[in-house]
Amino acid sequence: MYLLNRVQRHRVNSTWMVISLALVAFLPFLLFIGLYLKSAMLLRDYSLFDLVFSKIWKPSSGQFGFYPFIVGSVWVTMLAMIITAPVCLLTAIYVTQYTRKFVLRIMHPAIDILAGIPSVVYGLWGILVIVPFISRYLGPWLEVKTMGYSILAAAFVLSIMIIPFVLNILIEIFKAIPVELKEATWSLGATEWQTIKHVLLRKALPGIIAAFGFGLARAFGETMAVLMVVGNVVKLPKSVFDPGYTLPALIANNYGEMLSIPKYDSALMFAALLLLVVSLFFNLVMHFFIVKFNKY
Amino acid sequence: MKLARKIEEKFFKALMFLSTVFILIILAIIIYSIFEKGLKSISWEMITQIPQGGYYYGKGGGILNAILGSLTLAFGATALAFIIGLPVALYLNVFLVRHKKVITIIRFLLDLIWGIPSIVYGAFGFSLMILLGLQTSLLAGILTVTLFILPIMIRSMDEILSTVPIGLQEASYSLGSNKSETAFKIMTRQTVSGIITAILLSFGRAIGDAASVLFTAGYTDHLPNGLLEPVATLPLSIFFQLSSPVAEVQNRAYASALVLTLIILLVSLFSRGLGKRYHKTKINF
Fold it and tell me: Does A107 touch chain B (CB under 8 A)?
């Protein structure tokens, strides 16, 4: 029935397993080395400091300043986090502490659906709903001139996109806190909100920081949805109603012409390398917060 | 003092309630606006025909090329990721189950990879493609998307495999089976539903992601024919149609978005339903 006997099959299977494992374990290093080699050409001719802090982006004349893109990315990400963080934190506390189980049973599929919607669809929704809302209502109401395609629009769409991600982690964190801890506080006469404020939040702090950090890293690398609503103008934004440009959008928009201009491909790979390093760094740091949370 | 405390409690409780409702309302708005816009412009022609000449200026045709392309690409990538991913997840939970430190490190690495944005995979896949001398093609797209969904696949399988009590493995050894037999014949059977969920989850990710296929899979108006030909994908077809100035083409983007959303909703519904069906093979402890 089988071509090989049991011992031989065992050997084949285990070798296959080890090879797969090695491939996966080396993947981050492979990504880093690959992108580094590609961007080495750019790094040889320009100093890292110049690339990151120079404001002029003219690939055709050999000027590669990533500052506007980095600033755009940071603005969009930070703004998105400012919207997401309180909403997620409050919701997570509400569904784990205050309500009965069935609310959680409603929220779980809702979170799953939000997490499943592809980023292009989020972008399309942003164009349909958020961009007109900003240009027609919010802009005139605050008396600012805006196209609608702006940092704010991107941040808002992004904040919705990372809600399921952050909320999931937060719910897990709050579920992991032992109920005895709360009972001890109640027995001292504390109200529910006092328990949450003084005990729960303090206990969960490393976990909360980690959840926000993971969300931040995710938001920083999000491409399509942001690209579709951010406006894509290479200029330092003065307000959140200005259009901007982000690092992932830069890569995605210019892949077509990158082989026609010298060093352009190297520059785009450098942008990808930046994204990789930022994402790895954030995830690394946040992982230690999770370890800290689990410790006690 | 007491009153202030009461007001504070009430205030925050109301705020929490509002934020929960906010999330649900946003979800409802998203679903509503996609269905409302999409249903208006979707037609039988759209999902059964490929683009005809002048499609992007509002002439006839459909997005069958993108639907089939996306499905092919996602199937291929999911299959490849499964072939690499299942052994890794099994290796962690059978061979390395006694080495907690090694497992922790590998899980940590996997979580790191999971966090890498898909555009980075796209860029990496593109440089890999040039290195190997490939054109934008189905194969390059599959390879890139595989890398992208690997950590998702492995971690969700690992999550379910790690819940299997070690006694089951020991029972299997006591009957004389070796480690790989235990892994492939016992552990997989015990966790079928979880594995299927993991596969469907990865499939959903694979079909919805645009940034990683933007560089590698290319775009074409033809049906996918062959691994080395470029292939159209749904997310990209939405993106391209939306950037057209013609209103009619934009409407088609809404219809395409509806198709993509429906596929993903179906997949997630499926994974919920299937999970319950395969309880027969499971031993309860």
Answer: yes
DSSP string, A171-238: HHHHHHS-HHHHHHHHHTT--HHHHIIIIIHHHHHHHHHHHHHHHHHHHHH--HHHHHHSB---S--S
The partner residue sitting opposite A193, judged by closest CB among B9, B33, B37, is B9
Neighboring chain B residues of A16 at a CB cutoff of 8 Å: 87
Q: Does A220 touch chain B (CB under 8 A)?
A: yes
pTM of model > 0.95: no
What domain range is A41 assigned to? 6-45
Q: What CATH architecture does domain B55-277 belong to? A: Orthogonal Bundle (1.10)
The answer on pLDDT for B148 being more than 70 is yes
Contact of A281 with chain B, judged by CB distance below 8 Å, is answered with no
Select the residue of A124, A214, A255 nearest B215 (Cβ to Cβ). Answer: A255
Amino acid B31: pLDDT? 92
User: What does the pLDDT look like over A67-109, one tens digit per residue?
Assistant: 888 988 999 999 999 999 999 999 999 988 888 788 888 888 8
Task: For residue A264, give both structure tokens.
Answer: 């352009």
Q: How many structural domains is chain A composed of?
A: 2
Question: In Å, what is the CA distance from B45 to each residue of B124, B236, B252?
Answer: 37, 19, 11
**H or E stretch at A64:** strand A63-64
Q: Do A287 and B108 touch (CB under 8 A)?
A: yes
pLDDT digits (tens, 9 = 90+) for A27-52: 888 889 988 988 888 888 888 777 78
Same domain assignment for residues A189 and A230: yes
Interface contact flag, A120 B260, Cβ < 8 Å: yes
Residues A21 and A148 both lie in one domain: no
Is residue A23 included in any domain, yes or no?
Answer: yes
